[in-house]
Amino acid sequence: MLLLAFMLTGCSTTYVPISWGQGDLAKKISHEDPFLCLLFDRYDPQRSTLSVSGASFDEVMMPSEVKYHLGAYRRDSKVIYRNLYQEYTRDQLCSLMLHEFSHHIWYYGMKQEQRDAWRAHMVAHPTALQEIVRSTYRPGSDFDTEDFAFTVEHARPVDLDELAALKIITPDDRDALMALRFPGKAAAATGKATRSSGTDHPTQLQAKEHLERHEDN
Question: Where along the chain is composition biased (Polar residues) (predicted)?
Fold first, then answer.
């Protein structure tokens, strides 16, 4: 009966600021991960979204929802949160931060026309993650910001192109990320561009050097 009640009513999940009890780990990751570094340097150079000042909060979720809610972002505090009882690997923390920080960018780093253009991009280039969002998140949720966050977290080459086209990242950032995350596609693009226009695209070493400049600033 207890299990049935749990399945029907859900359970309470406690969220705390991501840096609470973690020292400078989140800030360290925000400087070391290439994608996080360039986004934080541009949209939150002081790393205020990683502050411990936000109040903890509880949220009741169904068991099917929990695995998609490793973190949270609160617009009132502008702070990224983690699940108090979840043990995270470094990769999971990177993904959590990339996803939740994307919410911050959506609300405070993008103009309405950029958000509208991203919605059109999702219509033209749909992803299976949109179905997960609509089947997992409750009615009334802001599906658009979740689409953006999940797509940035799992960005495809076409998504990186759109982020650059909308000036959310720079073309140089896009090329550097493409070379690191999709070296095969970047190499193919290099050959095509060289044949058609003589334009050089970054090698993985050049991409790494470009992204490391964010860490040095």
Answer: 195-206
Q: Are 33 and 90 in contact (CB under 8 A)?
A: no
pLDDT above 80 (res 14) = yes
Of 81, 82, 98, the closest CA to residue 149 belongs to 98
CA–CA separation, 77 and 124 (whole Å): 34
How many residues appear in the chain?
217
Q: Cα–Cα distance between 215 and 162 in angstroms, integer? A: 24
pLDDT digits (tens, 9 = 90+) for 150-180: 999 999 999 999 999 999 999 999 999 999 9
The CA-based angle 174-181-42, given to 5 degrees, is: 40
Domain boundaries, the chain: 1-34+46-88
Q: 58 by DSSP, 3-state: which?
A: strand
86 secondary structure, DSSP code: -
Q: How many contiguous H segments (helices) and E segments (strands) does the chain have? A: 12, 4
Closest among 123, 121, 147, 124 to 134, alpha carbons compared: 147
User: H or E stretch including 61?
Assistant: strand 57-61
φ, ψ at 79 (rounded to 5°): -125, 145
pLDDT, average across residues 73-81: 95
Sheet holding 71-74, edge to edge: 57-61, 11-17, 79-83, 71-74
Q: How far apart are CA 151 and CA 158, in angstroms?
A: 10
**CB burial of residue 157 (10 Å; 0-12, 13-18, 19+):** middle
Q: What is the pLDDT of residue 67?
A: 53
